[in-house]
Design brief:
heterodimer, A: about 500 residues, mainly alpha, elongated, B: about 500 residues, alpha/beta, about 50% helix, globular
């Protein structure tokens, strides 16, 4: 009898070794079978069949079972956390790299990508090309990017390649006709001279190809390639720009245009080849991507992207808009502080990225630690990180503005430019808050949430901007931007808090 | 002509394996029936692994993953169809029309199905809703999540589940519900190859139109799913998943007119799940004894002997057991090599097997040969056929090897004992030493090998031929169809 009892205990131990969480005798029976226990063995133990034996084994397991569960997450060391934090901060900074690199090139090499040194009419062609290229690509890329990420997550690399190819073809093919249509629309009654058209197309195509190249690099977090693409493209555009000199005088502008276009196109194609090579063909050869479905699901993301960039440039468009002949004319006094103020975004973007990733990580990891009955604690912990993120954005943004003002005030010519720099800088601190909400909504696959808020922001910025610039002074476009960005930021934060308060639901439905 | 809706999950016609072979053989040989195949898979991007028999009218691939929108992979499903469904689905619709049946569904699932009729009706209601509404919007709705929360998170027991695991469970349930979003083709009979999710269309058609429903159980679905549960799952998570699978099995068994296990071993499990015995009838698998017959293909070269394993590379097949056994076998009998034929279905497991081969320095003894189209030649090349599985139904590999007159050394799992009888060597599962001893016994004794092979071939000719297998299925099909006709006739008389 004693021997039998010992054997049952051994069996119970063996079952627990396979799985310490066996649920009942049926669960036990499965493991016993897997351990090689047969009906004959069961009979040796004095049982009619394996189920009867399993019942006894399970009784023993229940007797010895310790309470409590052991699943948890491995805590990282302090150094690992620090390194991870630095990495996240640095990758956040790349979000502001278009502004940062453009401005730095301007500051350091006098390659005038922000053409404050040329005539307003020449500056208008370049700046409109810059803004419109950003808006065009902001509308085009999200549908493709989210599908690329979707298939990457599914490890369906054949499909990723297919969408990547479609994206680069659509982008490459669409750029030229879009630039032509925009140029025609802007210059319908021939407000601008002929060289202006060429200049506009040249910069629109180059910038568009650059943004189109960088979008998948951002999405797939290929940061090394991203920086390389930025530097090489902007250097190409900048060098060609310098060679061209005064566009109104230069007879070889077409040649330089072709040269710049070709170089940027080479960078564009290289990016495609590089990315394609990262995804090897998988077992799924029969891949069919339904592009209409892809586009329809991507529309809300495109709308948000578009509204976000329109919001950023509304003050400038208001300032540039003349309502006469020509319809848009860059105000050089507004341009320099407006462009310099964009650098304020760099540090808050770094903090935003760091905290957003902590938030995403926390949603998963804390969920592994806490039971469903402890949901309040889960929500509160997330809200705490969210609040920390907002504080970090505000503090770092304000500090960044103060430091930049101290460093750059020599560049600002007079009180007007300082006024514009400070108001836009403050507005950009709020912009980082707005972007944090947009990214959170994108992560949780809720792109519709920021649309009404951003629409309100753009409308307000436009209306207030017009009223202030036409009734007070042109520099008050910056005040309009500050007021509308602060209102949008508050609304965005309230929307984010709504998400956080039901984080478990939004995280569940984020697919 | 009678139409049969064949319901498959992770098998025919997109994956190779025992169940797929069974389905292919059955359909190909029942030429007097037309077949429609509904195959539940994990991705829409699959190519056919079998040439479809001429009596197959349609194959409907129902992927649970791989697309964002249900039916996106079907050419006839247009963007306007999706927009129509999406626009006709509001939070209120989900709350009022879907949530009550979903609540019942979860309530039955969490207790492992106390009332299969109630569960079946809830599944049917959910199907009605999902065919008229957008699946994605439904499962992402707040009402869906609220129902999960009320039924599980606010439950005394399941409130202990970790938040992320509850989220994971809900997401998986959401994906599994994709199956209910399809309109099923018109049919006279449903035949499921498992009491699994793929059987739910059979349950629905039984409730809606009284279509006869039969299930063939190869391995016991409930039992195999338990073996597949992640080892890091906590007790509560295991309870939830086990109850879920039990519920799915029970609702299938309840609505099925006949349950046809491929071996008596399965009957024990079916009884244990509460299925009435009168519904159960064992029908053994049959093989083509003309194709699988002893042939001289020149596999044996002097003293050198080949062990053949015919199995997909998967945990359930316990290939590592075979690898470990080979360390003992090759020590005692160096002139041997083991060839494993079968597709890789679990890449990580395959890696692990390869590591073990390297670790035990068996690179010149164990070979992974990939899948084969000519299993009859492969068996015949072998001196002995090994089957190291953890779980089996009534394995074709064993019966085919027997038909080829080969001695078989196999683990004593599932219906292997019934297949082998006294014509092979049975060893306990997960015991490489026993497996090695069994193999060595045959390798060292040519007379024994010959005797076992001969007896095995005779046993197949007596019990496991195609003719017997097809005759049984024809009879069962006619039985359930005539029962339905009789029922309809009696209903007609009442009027």
């Amino acid at each position: 009898m004693a021997e039998v009892l010992t054997d049952i205990e051994t069996l119970a131990q063996s079952v627990l070794e396979v799985n310490e969480n066996v649920k009942d005798y049926l669960d036990t029976a499965v493991i016993l079978e897997a351990l090689g226990v047969t009906k004959e063995t069961a009979k040796r133990y004095g049982h009619r069949d394996i189920f009867s034996l399993a019942k006894q084994v399970f009784e023993v397991i229940e007797y010895y079972r310790l309470k409590g569960e052991t699943i948890g997450v491995k805590r990282r060391s302090r150094l690992e956390s620090l390194m991870e934090g630095i990495k996240l901060f640095a990758s956040g900074i790349t979000l502001s790299s278009p502004w940062m690199i453009i401005t730095l090139i301007y500051l350091l090499f006098k390659v005038s990508l922000l053409p404050t040194q040329v005539t307003p009419i020449a500056a208008t062609s370049i700046n409109l090309a810059l803004v419109l290229s950003i808006l065009f690509t902001a509308g085009l890329t999200p549908a493709f990017m989210r599908k690329i990420l979707y298939f990457t997550h599914q490890q369906n690399y054949s499909a990723v390649r297919k969408v990547l190819t479609a994206y680069f073809i659509v982008g490459g093919v669409a750029v030229a006709p879009v630039s032509y249509v925009l140029m025609k629309a802007l210059n319908l009654p021939a407000f601008y001279p002929d060289w202006w058209n060429v200049n506009f197309i040249l910069f629109f195509v180059s910038f568009s190809l650059l943004w189109l190249s960088t979008a998948p690099l951002y999405a797939l977090r290929a940061y090394g390639a991203l920086v390389f693409t930025y530097l090489s493209s902007l250097a190409t555009i900048g060098v060609i720009y310098n060679f061209m000199g005064d566009p109104s005088q230069e007879t070889l502008v077409h040649l330089y245009g072709l040269l710049a276009g070709s170089l940027v196109a080479i960078i564009y194609l290289s990016t495609y080849i590089y990315l394609r090579s990262k995804f090897k063909l998988e077992e799924y050869r029969v891949v069919r991507v339904r592009f209409p479905f892809m586009i329809i699901l991507g529309v809300p993301y495109s709308v948000v992207n578009l509204l976000y960039f329109i919001f950023i440039f509304t003050d400038r468009l208001v300032v540039w808009y003349t309502g006469g002949n020509p319809p848009f004319l860059v105000n050089l006094q507004y341009e320099l502080p407006a462009s310099l103020a964009l650098i304020v975004l760099t540090v808050p973007f770094g903090f935003m990225n760091y905290y957003l990733h902590r938030l995403y990580n926390f949603m998963v990891e804390e969920g592994k630690m806490l039971r469903a009955s402890m949901i309040e604690k889960y929500r509160q912990s997330l809200a705490k990180i969210y609040r920390k993120m907002q504080v970090a954005i505000s503090v770092s943004g304000l500090a960044s503005l103060a430091v930049l003002y101290f460093l750059l005030h020599g560049w600002l010519r007079g009180e007007n430019e300082a006024f514009i720099f400070i108001h836009l800088g403050l507005g950009h601190v709020f912009l980082a808050h707005i972007l944090s909400t947009i990214l959170l909504c994108f992560y949780l696959h809720r792109p519709n949430l920021p649309i009404p808020i951003l629409t309100l922001g753009v409308t307000l910025n436009l209306l207030l901007g017009f009223i202030l610039t036409r009734t007070v002074e042109l520099r008050f476009a910056a005040v309009s931007y500050l007021v509308s960005s602060s209102i949008v930021a508050v609304l965005a934060m309230l929307a984010s808090l709504k998400l956080i308060r039901k984080a478990e639901y939004y995280y569940y439905s984020a697919f | 002509m009678i139409r049969v809706l064949m319901l498959c999950e992770g098998t025919y016609p997109f994956y190779r394996g025992g169940v797929s072979t069974w389905t292919h053989n059955l359909i190909s040989n029942l030429e007097d029936y037309r077949f429609l195949i509904l195959s539940v898979t994990s991705t829409p991007f699959l190519s056919l692994k079998y040439e479809l028999p001429t009596n197959v009218d349609e194959v409907l691939n129902v992927p649970l993953w791989g697309t964002e929108i249900v039916k996106e992979h079907i050419g006839e499903f247009k963007l306007r169809d999706f927009l129509g469904l999406s626009l006709s689905t509001s939070e209120r619709d989900v709350q009022e029309e879907f949530a009550p049946s979903f609540k019942t569904f979860l309530n039955e699932v969490k207790y492992g199905c106390r009332n299969p009729k109630r569960l079946g009706e809830a599944i049917y209601e959910m199907h009605l809703f999902l065919t008229r509404h957008d699946h994605r919007k439904t499962v992402r709705s707040e009402s869906f999540w609220k129902t999960v929360w009320e039924e599980l998170a606010e439950d005394k027991l399941y409130g202990n589940i970790k938040i992320s695991r509850l989220i994971e469970f809900s997401r998986i349930i959401g994906f599994l519900l994709r199956l209910l979003s399809y309109e099923y083709p018109e049919t006279d009979l449903c035949h499921s190859s498992a009491a699994a999710l793929c059987g739910l269309p059979g349950v629905i058609l039984k409730i809606r139109e009284g279509i006869p429903y039969i299930i063939t159980e190869h391995g016991v679905y409930f039992r195999e799913r338990i073996l597949d549960l992640p080892l890091d799952a906590t007790l509560i998570e295991r309870i939830l998943w086990i109850n879920f699978y039990r519920a799915i099995s029970r609702v299938n068994h309840y609505y099925a007119d006949k349950i046809l296990p491929v071996c008596s071993f399965n009957v024990n499990w079916e009884k244990e799940l509460g299925t009435p015995l009168e519904k159960i009838e064992v029908i053994y698998n049959g093989v083509d004894v003309e194709r699988f017959r002893p042939m001289d293909v020149g596999g044996v070269e002097g003293d050198f002997k080949r062990i053949v394993v015919m199995a997909r590379i998967d945990k359930l097949k316990d290939i590592t057991n075979m690898v470990e056994a080979m360390t003992y076998v090759s020590r005692e009998y160096p002139n041997v090599r083991c060839e494993v034929y079968g597709p890789i279905v679990d890449e990580r497991y395959h890696e692990m097997c390869r590591r073990k081969v390297k670790e035990f320095k068996l690179e010149r003894k164990v070979f992974f040969m990939g899948p084969t189209d000519k299993p009859e030649l492969v068996y015949n090349k072998g001196y002995v056929v090994a089957q190291p599985s953890l779980s089996e139904g009534f394995p074709y590999t064993v019966v085919e090897a027997m038909a080829c007159g080969k001695p078989v050394v196999a683990t004593d799992v599932g219906g292997v004992r019934e297949a082998l009888g006294e014509c092979g060597i049975l060893v306990p599962a997960r015991s490489p030493v026993d497996l090695a001893e069994g193999l060595l016994k045959v390798l060292k004794d040519d007379k024994l090998a010959e005797k076992l092979g001969e007896k095995a071939r005779n046993r197949v000719l007596k019990f496991f031929t195609y003719e017997k297998f097809l005759e049984n299925y024809r009879r069962v099909y006619l039985e359930v169809l005539s029962e339905k006709t009789l029922k309809e006739a009696s209903t007609w008389r009442k009027f």
